[in-house]
Amino acid sequence: MTRLENPSVSIQDLSLNFGAISVLETLNIDVAEGEFIVLLGPSGCGKSTLLNCIAGLLDVSDGRIFIKGKNVTWEEPKDRGIGMVFQSYALYPQMTVEKNLSFGLRVAGIPRDEIAKRIARAAEILQIEPLLQRKPSALSGGQRQRVAIGRALVRDVDVFLFDEPLSNLDAKLRAELRVEIKLLHSKLQNTMIYVTHDQIEAMTLADRIAVMKGGVIQQLDAPQKIYNRPVNRFVAGFLGSPAMNFLDGRLEKNDGDWHFAVEDVRIPLATYAFEKEPVPGAAVFGIRPEHVAFNSGSGWPFTATANVVVVEPMGSDTLVWLKLGNQNFTVRVTSERTPNNADSVSIGFDPMRALLFDAATGNRL
Amino acid sequence: MADLAVPLPAGTGSLGLEASGPRGPKPRHVFSRRNIFLYGTLIVVALYYLLPLYVMVVTSLKGMPEIRLGNIFSPPLEITFEPWVKAWSSACTGLNCDGLSRGFWNSVRITVPSVVLSIAIASVNGYALANWRFKGADTFFVILIVGAFIPYQVMIYPIVIILREIGLYGSLSGLVIVHSIFGMPILTLLFRNYFTSMPEELFRAARVDGAGFWGIYFRIMLPMSLPIFVVAIILQVTGIWNDFLFGVVYTRPDTYPMTVQLNNIVNSVQGVKEYNVNMAATILTGLVPLVVYFVSGKLFVRGIAAGAVKG
Q1: What is residue A163's three-state secondary structure?
Q2: How far is B150 from chain A (nearest CA, A)?
Q3: Residues 6+ apart with CB under 8 A from A141
Q4: How many CB pairs under 8 A join A and B?
Q5: Phi and psi, residue B6, nearest 5°
Q6: Do A103 and B201 touch (CB under 8 A)?
Q7: Which whole-number Å values give the CA distances from A136 to A92, B31, B50, in the listed order?
Q8: Which CATH superfamily is domain A245-358 in?
Q9: Are A103 and B309 inside 8 Å of each other by CB?
Q10: Please, are residues A37 and A31 in contact by the beta-carbon 8 Å criterion?
């Protein structure tokens, strides 16, 4: 992988084993100064473990961690210049908000007037001034998470670590705080590393996303690049809601043109940009539900007829589940064009928007 | 389907449904068969357990002539506190005739340091085992727990020798050490389980905030563990106060705890058996654990309620 110059956080050949189980495998990642990196992946992929290693809460089995150019592999969490926000907020229940915020500073022996100054600043940024004398039990979930962010803020750290900070909140609050975190980042310009399994959080917040699976970073790139050009089938299927349609079939070459054959349908691939010269054989054809047009008639490189199975109206648009031959297929359409159940409809798409994956390795072709 | 949306006038039922019939809360009968069985059983069992206590109290308030009449269930004709005074300050055990008072103060001098010492050590043990997963923590824990399953009697003699060798045999501090050690397995288990049930992220947050081993223990964990400390105190105070075996083995007559002295008063074979004094002495000895239960029971419930608030 390419290394950055003067990275804010640099992980080099990091490995972590619990006994015989390998959780992280020679992992490398550089985070630029002021960058917002999201570690995205299903549960058990090692993303929180990686974050805990960066924080110093877990000892690594091998490799090195640099923060601001300093090797912190053996440092205590408090000496790494990091602040951390936890999923369960982890506020000290017996302390007021103010004491929660100042705990780290009091432990570090910082003078009182300095503590007061920093708390005032953090409380202003996060708009929690009226809550300072309350106990955490008297706060709502959103307020608690704000205090938890404040606790990282007052410590004046270089790097913020977020461990699924919004997962305990309801959908509405989650959307609100997501925007607030984004605003906070543009205001503070700190390096932030954010762990989540929520692809919407990842897409909206990140400068770059690292998609992880099985302790390995599958792809590290800008959100749009990850969405449009996923390196493999896992990344393609993990991002996007509803998920990408995958059709199992074969790659064939007839009369000098490549086709994708699925059951008795043949999709022409004249407009598809292959990574390298393909070979005929089993492959997976992927296309996102929003790239499929509905009742389109002619004018598309590929059209087909499918049967409607289920219709899910979602307000702004409608999700239509289809059977294309024997394979499931979803299409996203605007609400005005909603078909009825069991209708037979025609769909069309441009294979240029599609993605082809190797059936065995899952890599993009 | 459309007519369902039409609002019905108040008081009319939906069409086709029974208009009268059950409505609102289901009526409950005080003298249902279920209640009679339930409360009847509870009352009988309560009486069964309270009867001996009643006999003790009334006997301790009677004079010896009245006791000789043999009506052990009848209330005292003439209430006298003489037996209580005698049990406390002038009942004889061997050559000493200063009653239970000496044993009481011995027991206090044994119980207080033993409780404080054992809980202080065990809570740190439990905290270290739960949160600082040091190398060999599991082995250490298993060894400690195995200790709880070995009968005390097996260890009496080796401990006598150890105490003799370090010159503490027969002294109160020797007994305090023995009580502290024997409280360790169960208390450590208690504290370890409690600290394990506390959210791990709290501990991590404190570490990121820079607090060390003792900082986290005193500033984060201790203030959150009032309920478990109350449980530990109840357990230790009653256990150590009621102990007889260690008391009689590891102390001398002038340092006997209250239980041993009680035994010596009640079992003295010379002269007339003074049932009233014996009863008063027994109640006096049992008073401390009783008070602990009644006082801390409330605290205990309050502690649990306070701890249950989500935070």
Answers
A1: strand
A2: 33
A3: A89, A168, A169, A170, A173
A4: 63
A5: -70, 125
A6: no
A7: 8, 47, 46
A8: Nucleic acid-binding proteins (2.40.50.140)
A9: no
A10: yes
Of A87, A92, A155, the CB nearest to B202: A92
Q: Given an 8 Å threshold on Cβ–Cβ distance, is A55 in contact with B208?
A: yes
Helix ranges, chain B (H): 33-60, 64-68, 82-89, 101-131, 137-147, 152-165, 172-197, 200-208, 213-216, 222-224, 226-242, 245-250, 258-266, 275-308
Pairwise CB contact (< 8 Å): B219 & A55 = no
Determine the topology of domain B102-254+282-308 in CATH: MetI-like fold (1.10.3720)
What residues contact A214, with CB distance under 8 A and at least 6 apart?
A: A45, A46
Instruction: State the span(s) of chain A assigned CATH 2.40.50.140.
Output: 245-358
Q: Where does chain A hold its CATH 3.40.50.300 domain(s)?
A: 9-238
Spell out the residues 6+ positions from residue B228 whose beta carbon is closer than 8 angstroms to its own.
Answer: B190, B191, B194
Quick check: A339 and A308 in contact, CB under 8 A?
yes
Listed by start position, the domains of chain B span 33-80, 102-254+282-308
ipTM here: 0.84
Select A9-238's CATH number: 3.40.50.300, 3.30.450.180, 3.30.110.10, 3.40.50.150. 3.40.50.300
Pairwise CA distance, residues A64 & B240, whole Å: 53
CB atoms near residue A270 (< 10 Å): 10
Interface of B with A (CB under 8 A): 199, 201-202, 204-211, 215, 219-220, 223-224, 309-311
Q: What is the CB neighbour count within 10 angstroms for residue A234?
A: 20
Give CA–CA dist B133/B143, Å, rounded: 16
- Full pLDDT tens readout for chain B, 311 residues: 444 455 555 555 566 677 778 888 888 888 888 889 999 999 999 999 999 999 999 999 988 888 888 888 888 888 888 889 988 888 877 777 788 888 899 999 999 999 999 999 999 999 999 998 888 888 998 998 888 888 888 889 999 999 999 988 888 999 999 999 999 998 998 899 889 888 889 999 999 999 999 999 999 999 888 888 888 888 899 899 999 999 999 988 888 999 998 998 888 767 778 888 899 999 999 998 888 888 877 776 665 554 444 33
How far is the C-alpha of B160 from the C-alpha of A192, rounded, in Å? 63
